[in-house]
Amino acid sequence: MNKIYLLKQRSFMFNDENYHCVLDGEYGAITYKSNHLEDLTEQWKSLEFQYAHQSSWLHISNNENELYSSLTFQKVIQKHKCNSTNQYNNDQILSNLNKEDLFDILIELDANAFSCIEYIDLSEFYVLWNTTEDHYDISDANVPELEPPQLFLSKAESLEKLINNYAVAKNIPEKLVGSLQELSESPTLLQAIIEQYPCFHFKNNLLKIKEADTNAILAINGLLKIPLFAYRKLSLDEIIQIELNLNKNLETDCDDFKEYL
């Protein structure tokens, strides 16, 4: 059994009151890959330490989960009170933390800028393809006060998970116009699929799609002349290289823009 661990960047959003994580799990730019969890965890702690200092603690002190809800932070506060008679504030305490304590606090608050994903015997991903613009579907992840955002491909380890991707779900049309022959090179098979799944309704050259489930989308997608969604298969190393190039180009563009200003 071959295990692969990936470190991915999460994304935070500010809702006029505090920061909360909006992208997690398989979403996010891949920043580190390892077959050894211990090695990845050390890299993870170092990156969290670096990002927390760069972001001026915004996603920590202004997180939707109160800083004092962290048991580790409470212990640090108590220790600080015992060892010091000076006035202090939270930012000062955070800035003096070692990376171990800071990491524990981030995890307890769900304020970590990265997340670790474990895959078993994974050889390839399914990656969403933007047929309109003829390239991979790209999203971005943001951490407060850090620019530019990290770009990443919309990807999943299975077709089922890819279909449940928001980028796919929001673009599934409610209806397709045309005869069975116009919609598919295999109209008889298309008719059978329509009859098999209650989410499809075909009448008067109009195919209506209502609350289609994953199996229904997979069944009909391959029969359509113009698929509901398109995808590519890529290895993990191919994805990492594409994302590295995307973000390298983005940093170059941002530097050029700053020089122009």
Q: What radius of gyration results from the CA coordinates? A: 23 Å
Work out the helicity level: 40-55%
Count every beta strand, where a strand is a DSSP E run of 2 or more residues. Answer: 14
Low-confidence region ranges: 254-261
For the terminal residues, how far apart are their CA atoms?
A: 53 Å
* Overall pLDDT score: 82
Strand content: 15-25%
Give keywords.
261 residues; alpha+beta; four-stranded antiparallel β-sheet; 11 helices; elongated; disordered C terminus
Secondary structure blueprint with pairings:
Layout lengths: L2 E7 L1 E4 L4 E5 L6 E5 L2 H18 L3 H4 L9 H13 L6 H6 L3 H11 L4 E7 L4 E6 L4 E2 L1 E4 L8 E4 L1 E2 L2 H5 L2 H4 L5 E3 L2 H4 L3 H10 L3 E4 L2 E4 L4 H8 L8 E5 L1 H25 L1
Antiparallel strand pairs: 1-4, 1-5, 2-3, 6-7, 6-10, 6-14, 8-9, 11-13, 12-13
Helix pairs in contact: 1-5, 3-5
Q: Would you kindly provide a written description of the structure presented here, covering whatever features stand out?
A:
41% of the residues lie in helices and 24% in strands. The C terminus is likely disordered. It is α+β, with helices and mostly antiparallel strands and 261 residues long. Helix 1 packs across helix 5 and helix 3 crosses helix 5. It has 11 helices and 14 strands. The longest helix is centred in the last third of the chain and has 25 residues. The strands form 5 sheets. Strands 6, 7, 10 and 14 form a 4-stranded antiparallel sheet that branches. A 3-stranded antiparallel sheet has the order 4-1-5, with helices on both faces.
